[in-house]
Amino acid sequence: MELIPELKDSKVFIKDIKKVKSVIEQLASDGKDKLQVITDFDRTFTRCYFNGETCPSSYGIIDDSILLPSSYRAKATALRNHYYSIEISDDISLDEKYQHMVDWWNQAHALLVEHHVMKHDIEEMVRQSKALLRDGCQKLCQVLHTHDIPLLVFSAGVGDVLEEVIKQQGCYYDNVHIVSNYMDFNNEGKLIGFKGDIIHVFNKNESVIHHSDYFDKIENRNNVILLGDSIGDLKMADGVENMNQCLKIGFLNDKVESKLEDYKNKFDIVLVNDETMDVANAIINKII
Predict the structure, then answer these.
(1) Cα–Cα dist 176/141, whole Å
(2) Residue-range domains of the chain with CATH
(3) pTM > 0.90
(4) What is the tens place of the pLDDT at every residue in 86-141?
(5) In the beta sheet, which residues pair with residue 54?
(6) Extended beta strands in 187-222, E state
(7) Distance CA 248, CA 15 (A)
(8) Phi, psi dihedrals of residue 54, rounded to the nearest 5°
(9) Which residues are catalytic?
(10) First vs last Cα of the chain: how many Å apart?
(11) Checking DSSP bridges between strand 269-272 and strand 12-13, what pairing results, if any?
């Protein structure tokens, strides 16, 4: 811990310092060949704010695009305003929220199909957007690639969009595996639906990744650094067999006063209003 000055920053909150020290020491002792990194995308891999403005999510990149008509944006905004208030409500149970999220994603996907999104539009939508990866993401991805450490991006967003963001910002390597909601296009490149089961913010522990062979292929990598910005992200590593160590790093981007204690109880390290990957990079540097 003494050798990682980034953990002493005022933005860093750690409830159990002894535990974090022990986990990092074990990760370093086991080495890079036992390690994998699992991260959420929106507001975790990407910045939340830049120059005082909110950066768009992968769905937001589509919603904000001038390539779609204003009628689409009006309907998409209405859906978001209705369901997001349910997602963040403290008065609605998780079971109730679950079905609401399924309804939201289904309606959002149907709206995209209705407005004839084309495959060739995705690249331009991303290019015109204000989406930005966190400072230090390029360094993180390059180091993981150089040392052949798997990086799983596990997102409830739009896989085609976030993949394009990662590519355009120079972070897409062959060690990157993405699990998300991927679009399904016909032979003319027209959106006709989405592939597989819906991945939303509350089902990352039971969606397609845990029924695939991804974790089987890296079964010997039972040490995890997990990065997320919501409590639901804590489930992303549930598919790892024989888990040894899991260092959970949480980005707290808003409602700090009301959420901080809960985040400190559930994440090992909490980063408040931090738009960088400095802490993750510093820890990985000690492991490799």
Answers:
(1) 8
(2) 5-50+132-287 (3.40.50.1000), 53-128 (1.10.150.340)
(3) yes
(4) 998 889 998 899 999 999 999 999 999 999 999 999 999 999 999 999 999 999 99
(5) 49
(6) 191-194
(7) 12
(8) -75, 130
(9) 40, 42
(10) 16
(11) antiparallel
